[in-house]
Amino acid sequence: MRSTLDFDEGDLRRLAGSRSFERSLDYLSSVSALEISERTITATVDGNDVYEVELTGHAKSLAGKCSCPYGQEGNFCKHCVAAGLTVLRQADSVPGQRAAAASRGRQLDAWLESRGRDELLSLVREQLAGDRALRRRLELRAAAAGDDLDAFRERVLGQLDTRPFARYGYVEYAEANAYGLQATEAVSALRTLTESGRAAEAMEVAREAMSVLGRTYGEIDDSDGAVGDVAGALAEVHLDACRAARPDPALTADWLVDHLLSDLNDVTDIALSDYEDVLGAVGLARAHERVVPAWRAHPKGWAEKHLMEQLTKLEGGVDTLIAVHAADLAPSGATHLVIARELERAGRPADALEWAERGLRGADPDRGPDAHLVDFTCERYVLADRRADMITVRRDVLRRRPSLAAYQDLRAAARAADCWDAPERSRALDVLRADARPHQGLGHSGSALVDALLDDGDHDAAWEAAAEGYADGRQCLTLADRIRDRRPADALTVYLRLITPLLALTGDATYQQLTELLLSARACHIALGTRDRFTACTTTLRADQKRKRKLMALLDRRGL
Q1: How many whole angstroms from its chain centre is CA 437?
Q2: Cα gap 137→183, rounded to integer Å
Q3: How remote is the C-alpha of 340 from its chain's centroid?
Q4: In terms of Cα–Cα distance, which of 228, 315, 213, 195 is closest to 259?
Q5: CB 189 within 8 A of CB 152
C-alpha cells in the first residue's frame, strides 16, 4: 500500500515495538473520528480515556502523537498503531477521504472570504474567549504592530515563561514541545518587528529573550531539540536585526564577548564569526581587547579558549592559534592533532608532522594516543614513503592497547610494506596472547587474540586458542560456524554447550537462538552420520520443554 499511504504494518511495528503493536489489535474497534488529509491523519481512540491521535510523515519519517500518558512521554503508542492500522484497512477509500478533506478546506476558505468584517471579528472574539494560547499569540502580534516597546517586551518574554508548562519547577518531555511552539511565536514577532523597520528594538528585545531562555533551558527536558531550535532561531533573528540596525560595533562586541563567555551561549550556540560583518574592523579590535585578557587569565577555560580560537581564526594568525591550543594540551594527543591540521591548512606540512609526532611521543599511556592522531601521522608517513616509521607507530599502538582494531591496522601497514609474514605477524599475535587471560566457561569476555585469528581466517589456531580458554560464547559460536564443514565433531561440542543454558530460559529471542543452534547441531550430526542420535535428543528436549508453546510452534515451523 505504499503508493497510497507510504507506510505499512512493518513501519508501525518498528515504531511501536512488538508488544505495543500486538496490544493495538484490541483497539481497532475503538478508533473513531478518523480524518485523512494530505499530510496528517487524526483520530480518536477510546481506551482508559478518550485519546486524540495524530500521525504525520511517511514510512521511515512517520511520527505519532497521542494524548495518552505513554504517548505524552514521546512514545509511538498502541493508540497510534490502532489509528494507522485502521487507515491501512481502509486504504481503498484513502484517496477519496483526502479529496474530501481538501474540498472541505476550500469550502471553508470560500465561506470565510464571503463573511463581512463584523462577522469575522465576532468569530475571532468567540475563539479568543475560549482559547488562551490563541489570545496570547494575537496579543503578541498586536504589540509588535504598536509603539509601546515595553508592552511588546513583556509579551515576548511572556511567551518564554516556562511556569505554565512546568511541574515542580521543571518542564517535562511531554510539555517541552508545547512550550517550544509557544516560544516560536516570540521569534516570529521579533522577525516581524525587524521587517517593519524597527530592527534596533528587535535587537534589544532579542538579547533579553536569549538571556531568559538561556537561564531556563536547564530546567527543560528538550530531548527532541524543539526548544534548542527556538534558541537557534532567536540567535538568527538577533543577527538579522543587527545587520539591519547597524549598531555601534564596539558596544556590540562588548555584548557579544560577554554572551559568549557566559553559560547563556550553551543554548544559542552563537559564533564570533557570525558577526564579522556586523563588527567590522572596529568591533573586531574591541573584541580582541576583551578576549585576549580573558584567555590569558583562564587559558584552560573552555569558553575563553574557544572564543580565543575563533578570534584568532578571524584575524588569520596561525601561530597565535597554535599558542592558544598549546596552552592546554590534551594528554591523549588530540590537541596536537588540532594543531597539526591547522599547520597543514596553513601550508606548513613539515611543522604539522612534527607536532603530530610530538603528540604520539608525549601521549599518556592510559589515555592515548588519540586514534585520529595515529591515522593522521601514518597517512603522512605513507605520503613521505616512510612505511617503516608507519609500521613502528602501528606496532607501538598495538603494544599500548592490544585490540583487534590495532592488530588490523598493523596488518594493513605491514602488508602494504610487504612484511606481514613471520616474524611480524607472530610478534603481533604474541602481544595479543600476552594480554589475553584464559577463563573457564562461556560467560567471560572474549579475547582480541581469538578475534584476530578469526579475522585472519586461521581457524585451526583460533580453535586451539579457544580450547585454552581464550574465547567467549560469541567467539566459540562464530568459530563453530566456520569449522562445521571440516570439523563437525568439534563444532557440535560448541553447539551443545551453548544449548544447555538456554533450556532454562524463556522469551522469543531465546527460543529463536535455541532453534538456530539446534539446526546447526543437526547439520553436524548429519555430517557425522548420527542423525538418529539427534532425533532422539530432540524428542527428549520437546518432551521436557512442551509447556513452552511458542518454542514448540517455532520448532515445528523449522522442521525440528
Answers
A1: 35
A2: 10
A3: 29
A4: 213
A5: yes
CA dihedral of 17, 19, 24, 26, whole degrees rounded to 10: 170
Say if CB 159 and CB 182 are below 8 A apart.
yes
For residues 15 and 63, what is the distance between their CA atoms, to the nearest angstrom?
Answer: 8
User: Residue 60: its pLDDT value, please?
Assistant: 67
Give, for 56, the enclosing helix (H) or strand (E): strand 50-56
At residue 443 the predicted structure's pLDDT band, cuts being 50, 70 and 90, is very low
pLDDT tens by residue, 164-202: 888 888 888 878 888 888 888 889 889 989 988 999 999
Q: What separation in angstroms does the CA of 298 have from each of 261, 286, 311?
A: 11, 19, 16
Q: Which residues pair with 229 in a beta bridge?
A: none
Residues 385 and 363: beta-carbon distance below 8 Å:
no
User: How far apart are alpha carbons 233 and 245 in whole angstroms?
Assistant: 18
Q: How far is 27 from 14, CA to CA, in rounded Å?
A: 18
Instruction: Enumerate residues 6+ apart whose C-beta is below 8 A from 471.
Output: 446, 447, 450, 462, 465, 479
* Buried b or exposed e, range 329-356, using 16+ CB within 10 angstroms: bbebbbbbbbbbebbbebebeebbbebb
| Selection from 24, 169, 132 nearest residue 86 by Cα | 24
pTM: 0.57
Copy the grid coordinates of residue 437: 587471560
How many C-beta neighbours within 10 Å does residue 438 have? 12
Contact (CB, 8 A) for 81 and 21: yes
Instruction: With H, G, I as helix, E, B as strand and everything else as coil, classify residue 544.
Output: helix
Are 79 and 27 contacting, i.e. CB atoms less than 8 angstroms apart?
yes
Rounded to whole angstroms, how far apart are CA atoms 256 and 287?
8
Which alpha helices (DSSP H) does 363-423 contain, by range?
Answer: 371-383, 387-400, 404-416
Q: Centre a 10 Å sphere on the Cβ of residue 381 and count the other Cβ atoms it contains.
A: 22
What 3-state DSSP class applies to 67?
coil
Local structure of residue 214 (DSSP, 8 states): H
Find the mean pLDDT for residues 130-145.
74
Q: Which three-class secondary structure string do you get for 436-476?
A: CCCCCCCCCCCCHHHHHHHHHCCHHHHHHHHHCCCCCHHHH
- How many C-alpha atoms does 87 have within 13 Å on its Cβ side? 33
pLDDT per position as a tens digit, 460-469: 999 999 988 8
Residue 333 DSSP symbol: S
Q: Residue 392 has what DSSP assignment?
A: H
Question: Which residues contact residue 64 at a Cβ distance below 8 angstroms, ignoring those fewer than 6 apart?
Answer: 15, 53, 54, 55, 56, 71, 76, 77, 80, 83, 84
As a whole number of angstroms, the distance between CA 230 and CA 228 comes to: 5
Q: What is the DSSP letter of 57?
A: S
Would you say 387 and 417 are in contact if contact means Cβ atoms under 8 Å apart?
A: yes
- Amino acid identity of residue 104, one-letter, is R
Given a contact cutoff of 8 angstroms between Cβ atoms, the answer to whether 209 and 234 are in contact is yes
For the chain, state the CA radius of gyration.
Answer: 33
